[in-house]
Design goal:
The chain has 110 residues and is of the alpha+beta class. The chain is built from 4 helices and 6 strands. It has one domain. It has a 6-stranded antiparallel sheet. It is globular.
């Protein structure tokens, strides 16, 4: 297997499906607590694999659209009912929203 193909296959196995809109708040908080970094990256599956980073705060969400290198292209602050109409929520409804697993430390703990 070619190195690039193997690398992509390994990376693809770390993507976890997001199953419910209510899971997004938990997933963002989990990532922030365990990694110490703000927000969590999500991907809409498809030919383009559209990347986003979502930040949670008590009034709603900050959603950043990212380029392939992780640079912020655009962002929006959304109230919870506005987030339900965002393309991330639509992708979730069709089973096309994924997030990377949170990195584990060397001992195997999250």
């Amino acid at each position: 297997m070619h190195h690039t193909t193997a690398h992509r296959a390994a990376r693809a196995s770390t993507w976890l499906p997001v199953n419910a809109l209510g899971d997004i708040e938990y997933l963002v908080k989990e990532s922030e607590v365990l990694t110490g970094q703000a927000g969590r990256r999500f991907v809409i599956a498809g030919a383009d694999r559209l990347p986003y980073r979502v930040h949670w705060h008590p009034l709603g969400f900050k959603v950043e659209r990212l380029d392939a290198g992780g640079k912020v292209l655009d962002y929006r602050h959304l109230l919870p009912w506005e987030f339900e109409r965002h393309s991330l929520a639509q992708a979730l409804a069709y089973g096309q929203l994924f997030t990377a697993s949170v990195p584990r430390d060397r001992s195997g703990r999250t």
